[in-house]
Amino acid sequence: MNIDTLKASVRNVPDFPIPGIQFKDVTTLFKEPNNLRQLAQLLKERYADKGITKVVGIESRGFIMGPILALELGAGFVPIRKPGKLPAETIEESYEKEYGRDTIQMHRDALSPDDVVLLHDDLLATGGTMLAAYRLVRQAGVKQVYINFLIELADLRGRGVFPPEVEVDTLMSFDK
Ligand code: AMP
């Protein structure tokens, strides 16, 4: 199976959640057992030699492949969540969205200085969400951070928001 087969499994839903947005639906990608196995294998190959100790997934679609990848890499899994969801003491970052501001949180004790983190989400659009997540993980003071997405919407040039020293990797790239 190659990347084009995986790309063909991503469903395009026009005008969701609002008119003008082409929504990339990953449920059609994940529901096929062969796709799941292939995604896990491809991601494992990319990060096996990086010494990853924690995979950090962003709510909510980063919670699907994130733990699978953590298991494959022999790493732990840490969730980044929307405000008010995590029960213990948190640290947070806020960021501008198209309409208003958003905040994300992580447990204060989730990461330690010797952690090598793989930050994971399903899709890179403008990059705003992941940049806030990157800052949050940096706030926690870890050794190194890698960033991974399954899908990149290349036309939106979200990659450009990250500092040049961070390795940003995507499995599938789509143009509009
Ligand atoms: P952004 O912060 O603009 O990079 O947006 C990324 C977040 O929004 C990710 O968590 C995605 O799941 C979601 N998202 C943004 N645009 C789309 C899209 N066209 N299709 C599916 N999900 C999207």
How would you describe the overall organization of this protein?
Helix 3 packs across helix 4. The strands form three sheets. The protein has a five-stranded parallel beta sheet, with helices on both faces. It has a two-stranded antiparallel ribbon with strand order 1-2. It has a two-stranded antiparallel ribbon with strand order 5-6. It is built from five helices and nine strands. The two termini are 24 Å apart. The protein has a single domain (50-174), classed as Rossmann fold. It has helices at 3-8, 27-30, 33-47, 62-73, 128-139; strands spanning 11-14, 22-25, 54-58, 76-80, 90-96, 101-107, 116-124, 144-153, 167-174. It is of the alpha/beta class. The model has no long low-confidence stretch (mean pLDDT 97). Residues 21-24, 61, 121-129, 158 line the site of adenosine monophosphate. Adenosine monophosphate binds next to strand 2, strand 7 and helix 5.
Write the layout of secondary structure elements.
Layout: H1 3-8, E1 11-14, E2 22-25, H2 27-30, H3 33-47, E3 54-58, H4 62-73, E4 76-80, E5 90-96, E6 101-107, E7 116-124, H5 128-139, E8 144-153, E9 167-174
Parallel strand pairs: 3-4, 3-7, 7-8, 8-9
Antiparallel strand pairs: 1-2, 5-6
The structure holds adenosine monophosphate.
Query: Helical region count?
Result: 5
For the record, give the distance between the C-alpha atoms at the N and C termini, rounded to a whole number: 24 Å
Mean pLDDT over the full residue set: 97
In percent, how much strand structure appears in the residues?
A: 25-35%
Distinct small molecules: adenosine monophosphate
Architecture, CATH level 2?
Answer: 3-Layer(aba) Sandwich
- Low confidence ranges: none
Q: Let me know the largest β-sheet.
A: 5 strands, parallel
Shape: globular
Q: Describe the strand arrangement of the main beta sheet, using strand numbers.
A: 4-3-7-8-9
CATH fold topology: Rossmann fold
Q: Count every beta strand, where a strand is a DSSP E run of 2 or more residues.
A: 9
Run of helices and strands = HEEHHEHEEEEHEE
What structural class should be given to the helix and strand makeup? alpha/beta
Radius of gyration over C-alpha positions, nearest whole angstrom:
16 Å
Overall CATH class:
Alpha Beta
Overall number of domains: 1
